[in-house]
From TrEMBL:
Protein family: In the N-terminal section; belongs to the asparaginase 1 family.
Annotated ranges, domain L-asparaginase N-terminal: 22-241
Organism this protein belongs to: Aspergillus sclerotialis
Record-given protein name: asparaginase
Keyword Repeat assigned: yes
Gene Ontology molecular function: asparaginase activity
Residue span(s) of domain Asparaginase/glutaminase C-terminal: 261-373
GO biological process: aspartate family amino acid metabolic process
Length: 561
């Protein structure tokens, strides 16, 4: 287990103020919010008021503060009453508000329209919150997780989906633990992935599947260990497994999945080639997920009729992906029956779940400029950690992993501060652990340090390695704040290109500083409306790249060197 976390002021920094994380809970429906009715359980509104405000673990009783939420396509902002948890084991409090969809659904009725609505809600509110929890029915939860994992591109913040087997208002329920566990993950741990939290486990969303209709342990991710496990002591994150965006690009969403042109078919003993042909000849079909036996085997039919049906469809432009019906393991060309499929052009889906294969296919087919070749190529490549391309042994030190890790972090810190790019590259290349989100004694990560490094190349390199731009140091400062405070024009631009934005808690200080240097802070995202264009221009030049570090520096909490 690594030392990486968003912040941990309670441990090692008892004098630090208690920081609040902000989490948006998006309610889509599902059992978690359901109530009994003459026609069975149905979703009910008023979850925050009815289910959370009366529970001490979800409400510390402090005055409710309004949180801005962007509520619709017109970017209309509405203030929502918030609640705050008591201080967690990690010395934080989580302030959250529940945003309910207009129509609450049983998840068996959710489709691509619902996925797009969730993606848009996250996108519109991305800069206002540290993390997102999506409440959703369990029936199609694994599909939604998979779909969102592809739709949310260059995601830099945690998105945790959860639900429950039994409603929150039922006496013995799993809703309380599932929601609290999800809030803690979204409010503390920089896991920039779409995840599914259930029964004390955090799974990668696109690796998970529903394995039980009524057990509390309803989900599993058979081909990928949990990203985190909650015990009575704490939530232990397996940081080495966490995927991070490695592009210098802003967060974006792709919402128009091509779900109406993909299908899924399960092979069974005795299946007729004509049956498969009938599906493959469905009007407008572009992609098919074939659930095959074992390591990817299917009957080739008399005179290879089945293989011919598949090969003909592929020639017509249809993409066919082979996934296994087994819960664990991968499609691999071991048997002749499996090999004939791959010779016909069927793509090996390796160890992808059906849910991931189907939603990935719908995502890739809808990408601008998608061709059969591009979809085929990307289908067997991991784009969000949804499949294992090859297993790579991880070199580990069995003893004293933590001190070594801290030592490396310190050496790295010096190299960054000195602008020694070659040394930084060497350290990252040889360090067996992923340390870019680890924090030093003042909560600064390597990205915080690089935000004021004399070498812009170092910042570029570390961002390309997946370091997070959203982590805040013990003073609550993001790397972007430190770069702006140091007047580093290029650094600010690069951070902004990588999706960085100022946290709402640091905006008041930033606005104060912006009165003296509106140009530089304007680039960091603070617009002072009363400033004329000319004044902004003037400031911009004065604080430009050539003069970086020379200007007067007001320190309102930034603790970078
Ligand atoms: N039918 C419910 C749903 O998926 C089941 C659940 O939430 O557990 O919405």
């Amino acid at each position: 287990m690594g030392a990486e976390a968003i912040l941990d002021p309670a441990q090692g920094h008892p004098e630090a103020p208690i920081l609040e994380s902000r989490v948006l809970i998006i309610m889509t429906g599902g059992t978690i919010c359901m109530r009994d009715s003459p026609s069975g359980f149905i979703p009910a509104r008023g979850f925050q008021e009815q289910c959370l405000s009366r529970v001490p673990t979800f409400n510390d009783g402090s005055d409710s503060k309004g949180l801005d939420v962007v509520v619709n396509q017109a970017n209309e902002v509405k203030e929502h009453p918030s609640l705050r948890t008591p201080t967690t084991a990690y010395g934080r409090q989580i302030r959250y508000t529940v945003f309910e969809f207009e129509e609450l659904l049983d998840s068996s009725s959710i489709d691509a329209k619902g996925w797009a609505e969730i993606a848009r809600t996250i996108f519109r509110n991305y800069t206002l919150f540290d993390g997102f929890v999506v409440l959703h029915g369990t029936d199609s939860l694994a599909y939604t997780c998979s779909a969102l994992s592809f739709m949310l591109q260059n995601l830099g913040k945690p998105v945790v989906l959860t639900g429950s087997q039994s409603p929150m208002l039922v006496l013995q329920n799993d809703a309380t633990d599932n929601l609290l566990g999800s809030l803690v993950v979204a409010g503390h741990f920089m896991v920039p992935e779409v995840c599914l939290y259930f029964n004390n486990r955090l799974f990668r969303g696109n690796r998970s599947c529903k394995v039980a209709a009524s057990d509390f342990a309803a989900f599993d991710s058979p081909n990928c260990p949990p990203l985190a496990v909650t015990t009575s002591m704490r939530t232990n994150v397996n940081w080495d497994l966490v995927n991070r965006p490695r592009n210098i690009e802003n967060f974006s969403i792709q919402t128009n999945l091509d779900t109406s042109h993909v299908a899924c078919l399960r092979i069974f003993p005795g299946i007729k080639p004509q049956m498969v042909d009938a599906v493959l000849k469905l009007e407008g079909l572009h992609g098919l997920v074939l659930e095959t036996f074992g390591a990817g085997n299917a009957p080739h039919g008399e005179d290879n009729a089945m293989t011919k049906v598949l090969a003909d469809a592929i020639k017509r432009g249809i993409v066919i992906v082979n996934v296994t019906q087994c819960l664990t393991g991968s499609v691999s060309p071991v048997y002749a029956t499996g090999m004939s499929l791959s010779r016909a052009g069927v793509i090996a889906g390796l160890d992808m779940t059906t849910e991931a294969a189907l939603t990935k296919l719908a995502y890739l087919l809808a990408l601008p400029g998608a061709t059969q070749e591009s979809v085929t190529r990307n289908m067997s490549t991991s784009i969000r950690g949804e499949l294992t391309e090859s297993s790579q042994p991880v070199f580990r030190h069995p003893d004293s992993a933590l001190p070594e890790r801290i030592q490396t972090l310190t050496v790295l810190g010096y190299a960054i501060a000195q602008g020694d790019f070659a040394r930084v590259q060497e350290i990252i290349k040889t360090e067996p652990h992923w340390i870019l989100n680890d924090a030093d004694y003042s909560g600064n990560t390597p990205i915080h340090l690089a935000a004021t490094s004399p070498s812009i190349a170092i910042l570029h390199f570390l961002l390309g390695q997946g370091g997070s731009v959203h982590i805040r140091n013990h003073n609550g400062r993001t790397p972007l704040f430190l770069a702006a405070n140091a007047g580093l024009f290029e650094h600010i631009l690069l951070l902004r290109q990588s999706g960085a934005h100022l946290h709402s808690d640091e905006r008041p200080a930033a606005e104060l500083l912006a009165q003296r240097k509106p140009g530089i802070w304007g680039i960091a995202g603070i617009t002072l409306k009363q400033m004329s264009e000319r004044e902004l221009e003037g400031e911009h030049t004065e604080n430009g790249f050539e003069r970086r570090g020379k200007g007067h520096r007001v320190d309102l909490g930034g603790s970078a060197p």
